[in-house]
Specification:
Elements lengths: L1 E7 L2 E10 L4 H13 L4 E12 L1 H16 L3 E5 L3 H10 L1 H4 L1 E3 L2 H7 L1
């Protein structure tokens, strides 16, 4: 897993490549938690380069969303495709989070 972050306006954009699984989910969650601890509250998770996500990855996203809710923050997702998109649909996560086709579309809507 590779994580690249940048900030645009007030939004932390997180581009994740590779896999979020039992081995990498804790690192992913810690990365996002560190931003929240620094006072960040708007996140766009760009999963256009994500190849795989496991239930551990889904749990890390949910845990982060709960932390953000406490801070009245917001998290949106973009770029889901293939098996990653399927996992979000099967798990029902597509009803919990706002999901956009692209980062550009998401940035316009936040």
């Amino acid at each position: 897993m590779e994580i690249q972050t940048r900030k645009e306006r007030e939004i932390v954009i997180v581009l994740v490549s590779g896999r979020i699984d039992a081995m990498t989910a804790p690192e992913f969650e810690k990365n996002l938690s560190d931003f929240i601890l620094k006072g960040e509250s708007l996140f766009l998770l760009n999963f256009s380069n994500l190849e795989y996500i496991s239930s551990a990855g889904l749990r890390s996203i949910l845990a982060t969303a709960k932390k953000l809710k406490e801070k009245e923050g917001k998290m949106v997702l973009a770029g889901l495709k293939g098996s990653v998109e399927e996992v979000f649909k099967i798990s029902g996560f597509h009803t919990i989070f706002k999901i956009f086709d692209s980062e550009e579309t998401a940035l316009k809507e936040i």
